[in-house]
Structure formats: C-alpha cells, structure tokens
C-alpha cells in the first residue's frame, strides 16, 4: 500500500511539473514581472502591441490578456466610479501640513480602490475608472492663483508639494518589497505646467530660467521618482522650450530617465499626442504616425487617446523600429504583472480587501479629521470665534447648503455630504437659526431651488437612464438616481455615469414635481448637447445648447397638482455638459436680505467660488472667468456688496470662504470680523467647520499658497518666471502670507539650538525648537523651518525646508526636534545649474508662518 501511494505521489508531481513546464513563462507567477513581460511581448503582433499601448487596452483572448483601461482617478478619494469616501480637495489637504495624516488618507483610498476593483473584476475586463493605475497626485506648482486646476495641487512651495506628494504615492502603492503592488500612482503633469487652461493645447513654456526649472518646477517630481519610487509619470499638454512635453527628449529622456534613473511608465495626458498634429494646437508634426513615433521615441509608453493606433503604419513608413515599441510595451506589461492584474485574484493579497471598507465608518471619521485639519483661520478680530452656542445665528450665502461644491473636482460620490447649514444644525435648534441664501455666486438673480420637491419611485430627485448610443435604443446600459441638481460635464473625461461613453451616448431623466405652493417655477439649463424638456408629455423646450445658465421655461405651478418632468439628452462629440436646476427666480434684494437676518446676533456668510466656475478647461461664460481659470482673483461683486450691507447694519460677520485657490479678500478683511478658509472640504466639511465655529476643534491649518491683496499684485498669467511670485520671490506684502493660520490659543517660540553650527557635506543635524502654548486652549502648531542664503541676491528670500505639526497642551512647552539632512540644505548653484549644498553662511529661520518679521533665526555654516 505504501509503495502504491509513493507511486501515485510521484505521478502527481510529474503531472504538476508537466503542467508548469507546459505553461508559457508569462503565465508563471514564480517568475519576475520583467521576465514575464519579456516573454509576453515576444508573442504579440505589431497591431496588438499598438492596441495595448492605448489607455483603453482591448482583450487578447488567444493569450489570456483581459481588457484593461489605464485611466483611473483618486485625487482625494476614488474618483468617478460611484460610491467612495470623499476627502477634502488636494489644496485643502495641503493646508493640513500633515503628511503623516495624508499617508493615512491615501492608505484608506487605496483600500477602497482595491475593493472596488475586485468587484468590477467580477464583471470581466476592466473599464475606465475601474483599474489599478491611479493618475494621482497632481504635483504641479500652484504659481498663480488664477489657474483653475490649482485646487488639485498641494500649493506653491516645492518642498511642501514633494513631501505631500510622496505621502500620497506611498499610501497608494503600499509597502515596497511585496510580491504585488497595491496600486500604481502617477506624478503629473510633467513638467512646467500650471495654466492657462484655455490655451494649454498650444501654449509654449519657453525661456524658462534654469533656476526656476530646477528650484521650482522639478524638485517634487524628482522626490517622487527617486524617493517614493512612483510607478507612473504623466507628461503635460503644453510645449516646453518648443517641444510638446510628451515628445520632449530633454524632459523625458535626458532628465527623467538618464539623470534621475527612472525606469517605469510615462503616460500622456489625454489627447496630448493629437495636439502634436491637430490644427490650432501645437502643430509640430504632420500626422498621427509622426506624432506617435516621436512620442514613443521620447519615452512616452502609453497614450491616453487613440493616436497610437497608427504605430503599425509608422513602422511601415520607417519612422520607428518595432524594437522601440517593444521597450515601451515591456514597461506596460511589467506594471500589469506587478499589480497582479494578470494573475488570479486568489493569489493577490490586496484583492482580499473586503468591499465593506468603501464608505466605512473609519473612513468617514478620517474624512472628518482631514477636513478639520485643512481649515485655516485667517482672521479673528476681538476673538469673535469660537461662537457662544446661545447666540442666534443667520446662515447666509450661496455656498451654505451646496453639497456638490464641497466635493471639488475629480471626485467620487459619498453616501452623504454634510453642508455648512447641516453642520450648524447639529449645534443649534432651528429657533436659533435663520437661513437666507441672499445671493448667487456671481449673479444678481438667485435661483431658490425646489429640486427637492421632485421625487421618483419614492426617492427625492430624478431617476436616470443612460444608453451607449445617441438614440436611446434598446435596454438602458445604466440606471441610477440623481438626488441633487445636475452638474454633469465630460471635460477631463468625467463620464455622466460609470460605464457610459464620453461621447455617442444619450440619457433620460424623469421625476414628478409636487409644488408646495402656487408660484412661477423657472427651469434653468446650461448644456452642451441636444437637450429636450417635456412636462406632462408635452415638449416645452428643445434643441437647447446654452453655454450660460439660462432659463428655458417658466411653469405656472399650482399647489396640489403633480407635474411629470422629463429631460432627454444626447451627445456625439467631446465635452458634453448638462447643468439643471429648477426653482423660483428672485432678484437679489440686499436690503431685504438684511431685514430677514436683523434678529441675528452674528452672521455666518458662506461665500467664495465653486468648482462650477474654476476647474479644468471649462466652458463657462461668466465675467471674470475664462476656460476654468479666473481673470481676477477678487470675490465676486455681488457677494462683496451683500457683505458690505450686512456690515452697515451693524452685524458681526464670520466669513467662511469656499474656494480651491486664493481669493483677494482685502475688502472682506475690513468688512468681516472673522475669516475661515474652508477650501472644498469634502463630505464631512459642514461638521468640521461647525466644530471650529463653536469651539469643539481648535483650528491649526496653514495656507499652502499666498493670499494676495489684489489681482494687481500678480505678474502676467502666461509668464512662467517666478519673479514676483509666491512667498519666495514676492517683494510686496501680501494680505495673508504662505504658512499663515491662527489658533484659539497662542504659541511662543524660544531660542532654537543645533547640535553643530558647522555642517559638513552629507552630515545630518538636529534642530531643537522650544514651543510653548501660552493661551487658554489646547492646540496644534505647525512649526515651519526655512533656509535663507543672505549672500544670494538673485535667489528666493527664504525657502521652506522642514515642517512639523505638533499638539501642545495649554501651559506646556514642547521641545520640537527636526532632523535636517544634506537635502534640506540644497541651494541653487548658478555655476552648474544644479541644486546642491553650497559652502557658505546661511540662516535657519523658524516660526509659525513664512512672514520674515515673525521668524526667529539661527546661523549655520555649510562646509
């Protein structure tokens, strides 16, 4: 019997060996990703290779390759793929000055992304916004507050941006050395890219001073490549010194791959390759073949777009050799093997993360913590804040009850968003609250929405059906429910619904309106597409295509009646948009607003702007806004006028400013007693702000950007020189400086000490700073350390080199220790055009702001 078992065991081993040996190497998980990729690429046809180098990569069944889309987003939570925890917008998280907390946030984000990917994988091949390659973080320098996409960055400082960016990468990619990577992050947009949006497809960033390039625009990318080992880099739309960034040998080959040793993937920004040859874009190349060959030869491995479909023709024309295509494709396939996407989920530990992590209690609490830490108290005259909970409060302003605004852009969809009004209602009974919107963001006519008086199938809002064709043919491909006024736009490739095309699609939205009273109801649309409105089966408006929000129909609604509303939409080309809301149109009456809130002890004004007017390449036609950018940085006039009237009425005013960028709040700093910068604070924003307003949380956020006094303080938007920009090169006084932020307590800095006054090249030293909490509240302080080189008259006045957010109890003193390494003492060397420690005398400046007159100093010599 024993002999028989031995014989059977031997046969079993032989069978396993035979199966293993009969498998092609690319299917063997025991081999390295490089070995597997090399084997697989050799089995592909040229046409298959070209297909796999586009973001929407098809399945190749004969080799067991599943469909995969490289495009996914996770800017501040898993984006554009349904339910997800929505954290504050990136600029707000930059204001936390807490890279450790940011790492925790993106660990949570990567947990949700993996769990969602596992669910999506059950349906077969992965579509857009379902994969494991996240095109995050945006580490461009926010050099000018007019840039609409600056909200996606971590601010104006290269060091802060690098530290925050590395935390994001490490949280997304997971610990190094594991068999499989958790996700792949992407450093974007490389390089020298920060607007304007309206001409980004043709703009040439030229005559860039070497100092600006190496001291400002490249450091964060270098950090993410060499220290955090980011797995993807996205090249930008614009040209750099005459060459499109995605075809720049200087940026991609000389700097990125040769100097920095980057061996991973470069991905193009979306349709950036077509800008090489499109009319009115860069027009550097005659056609797709030349553009695609140039991009691949320059090191761009995967295209977001479809120009790379021409690569086989480019090979035939002798523009590129197939071996060059293989180099790029091997990097792509290696990445898919590293992620475990080509293997069975049971073999991948990350694929075992349960779906229950999505929108979990722990993640909602983390969103609240980050929202709190992002809030910056800019002004607090006579210690108006925190507010007494016995006061009668008027909540006024266009952003007081706007949940969608709080999501920012590139967002997911939370299960619930707490607006500022809702957050205040958690503290005060209705008898102590007066809610009066007062005005729109920018218009003299405000729409008081009755959207919530619409319901379908027992749910507030509209039912939605979507088809991946333009004629609503067949069974809908997706059905869902819309519970808030519509704000759909495909710019940046945000689909109307997960699983629906960016173009060649149609939609139908239905609901029943039950008016609470008899009145005229305006139906307001902003659309790019063929839109039709029907009420009770009768078409009342059709063929709508309005770039501005426009009233298209007025319903004389009668209380007690029901009105069946249907909106049909179809679109064929890029940049579809559909904004819709309905309500009573009320001309702004400033005196009437003041009368309505006259009983209030204090006004909480929720103003600022919104992602509806600032963002990526937008099509809004509102004075002061262009292409998603701003032409002026002042608060919209209607809001300033209303605040002035409230001030004249003798009211104490707390201004809560929602924005993704700096607002020139010079008039408001005189009109308002307290100013709290809220950014776009995510799903828990209302609770976090209310916690601060009523004293249950002591604010400690710091500005990651300079708040200028006015647009006049800014250089030309298209000038990429750093002269006169940001705290490092600004010569005038700003309204609120980089690093500024108040607390309900006070901190005092003692004299710092270094363990040596002379630092030799490569030596690490320790800076010890005594910080005392001299106020009445426990609080957190952001200790900021700057380096100054008095002998360099052309360089920055000072530059951030370290920071640490510390909690200090009232009456206590903490000795804050900050290690400083060789890299903290790098300065630009004009003789070699490099960043390195240069011998000489320096000053280490330290304190709770970047404002020079408030910083203490200690001398240090670099040997």
From TrEMBL:
GO molecular function: alpha-L-arabinofuranosidase activity; xylan 1,4-beta-xylosidase activity
Keyword Signal attached: yes
GO-annotated biological processes: arabinan catabolic process; xylan catabolic process
PA14 domain ranges (all copies): 457-598
Record bears the keyword Hydrolase: yes
Signal sequence annotation: 1-22
Alphabetized UniProt keyword annotations: Hydrolase, Signal
Annotated transmembrane regions: none
UniProt cross-references to InterPro entries, sorted A to Z: BXL, Fn3-like, GH, Glyco_hydro_3_C, Glyco_hydro_3_C_sf, Glyco_hydro_3_N, Glyco_hydro_3_N_sf, Ig-like_fold
Family label: Belongs to the glycosyl hydrolase 3 family.
NCBIfam families recorded: xylosidase_Xyl3A (NF041776)
Name of the protein: PA14 domain-containing protein
